[in-house]
From TrEMBL:
Molecular functions (GO terms): chitin binding; chitinase activity
InterPro entries the record matches: Chitinase_II/V-like_cat, Chitinase_insertion_sf, GH, Glyco_hydro18_cat, Glyco_hydro_18_chit_AS, Glycosyl_Hydrlase_18
Organism of origin: Drosophila rubida
Keyword hit for rRNA-binding: no
Span of domain GH18: 21-368
Similarity comment: family membership: Belongs to the glycosyl hydrolase 18 family.
Record protein name field: GH18 domain-containing protein
Gene3D superfamilies: 3.10.50.10, Glycosidases
GO biological process: carbohydrate metabolic process; chitin catabolic process
Length: 368
């Protein structure tokens, strides 16, 4: 009887451990090059706020081999080693290598996925990357199959690539994740959803960037209705809810108003908003920049999201309240968890209050 009770206790503990919701923290390592309070490196990471740390990005060459995009930062400065060493502070942390991203494009990935030899190069180089550096898995962020220079065969080739990766990773226990476009227009064009879902441990759904300055009008980066529609679409197309990880943008999309007196959602804009002091990119502001701006702020309950404006500048973003609403939805759908893009744009220094307010809000809802 005693042994039976111990066995039951172990089984129950195992269920608790495996049922823990994911908080996947993407880290844009290039933030090391930002100035002042925008500079971010491994010392700024609290590994206990994440179940997964996704080290971004690696790329590939024309032969399909995975390669460093910044060898000085990755190896000379030891960023990879510093990332993996965070497991000393949180032994349960999984550190993943992320290959791809928007700037890598789609053409090389389309060619690799459609060629057996290049796929094997990719898989073998992935195994070497993980083994040699102590990573716990790989996240494939191909943006996007059958788009940006890809072709229709990318859809089935992506399934093949993921299946072969899964088989290669199995003996080592490596995790395999993917980052995917969220909305129906992207997802229906790029993915055989039910088939890719069978090959991976989890799917990071990039539920943001629903409005851009190129639309010609202001709009919400991540309105609640768009997030719900996207997740419901993925589930209806055969993705198990417990493999879907809801994306939260720790940044806002900014716009330059055509007329500063017209400062509401849907107002005409003449282009991207001005660059932030840290991120330095037009149309994009980190939450750590937005919270210090002291602009006039409105919470739009129809979209469950805030926006702020000052003069001809307008930005839509997420704050603590909107993140709470998103997490309530994730819980209601029994999703695998949440991911953040990205650590270095949360208010990690606590310049506006507590440190990591958005990430801590996610943890309070999903884990604590």
């Amino acid at each position: 009887m005693g042994k039976l009770l111990v066995l039951l206790a172990v089984l129950c503990l195992g269920q608790i451990i495996t049922a823990e919701r994911i908080v996947n923290c993407y880290w844009g390592t290039w933030a090391n090059y930002r100035s002042g309070n925008g500079k971010f490196d491994a010392s700024n990471i609290d590994p206990n706020l994440c179940t997964h740390l996704s080290y971004s990005f690696f790329g590939i060459n024309d032969n399909g081999d995975i390669q460093s995009l910044d060898t000085w930062l990755d190896y000379d400065l030891g960023f990879i080693n510093k990332a993996v060493s965070l497991k000393h502070q949180n032994p349960n942390l999984k550190v993943l290598a992320v290959v791809g991203g928007w700037n890598e494009g789609s053409v090389k990935y389309s060619a690799m996925a459609g060629d057996w030899n290049k796929r094997q190069n990719f898989i073998n180089s992935a195994l070497n990357l993980l083994r040699n550096n102590g990573f716990d898995g790989l996240d494939v962020d191909w943006e996007y199959p059958n788009q940006r220079g890809g072709n229709w065969n990318d859809r089935s080739n992506f399934v093949t690539l993921l299946r072969e990766l899964k088989e290669a990773f199995a003996p080592y226990g490596y995790e395999l994740g993917i980052a995917v476009g969220a909305g129906e227009s992207i997802a229906s064009s790029s993915y055989e959803i039910a088939n890719i879902a069978q090959q991976v441990n989890f799917i990071n759904v990039m539920t943001y960037d629903f409005a851009l300055a190129s639309d010609g009008q202001t709009g919400f980066n991540a309105p609640q209705w768009a997030i719900e529609n996207s997740i419901n679409y993925w589930i209806n197309q055969g993705a198990p809810a417990n493999k879907l990880v809801l994306g939260v943008g720790m940044y806002g999309r900014s716009f330059q108003l055509s007329d500063p007196s017209q400062n509401w959602p849907g107002a005409p804009c003449r282009g991207a908003g001005g660059a932030g002091a840290y991120t330095g990119e037009g149309g994009y502001l980190g939450y750590n920049e937005i919270c210090q701006n002291n602009w006039h702020t409105v919470f739009d309950y129809n979209n469950a999201a805030p926006y702020a404006y000052s003069g001809d500048q307008w930005v839509s973003y997420d704050n603590v309240l909107s993140v709470q609403w998103k997490m309530d939805f994730a819980l209601s759908k029994n999703l695998a968890g949440a991911m953040v893009w990205s650590l270095e744009t949360d208010d990690y220094r606590g310049l506006c209050g507590e440190s990591y307010p958005l990430l801590k809000t996610i943890n309070r809802k999903l884990r604590w």
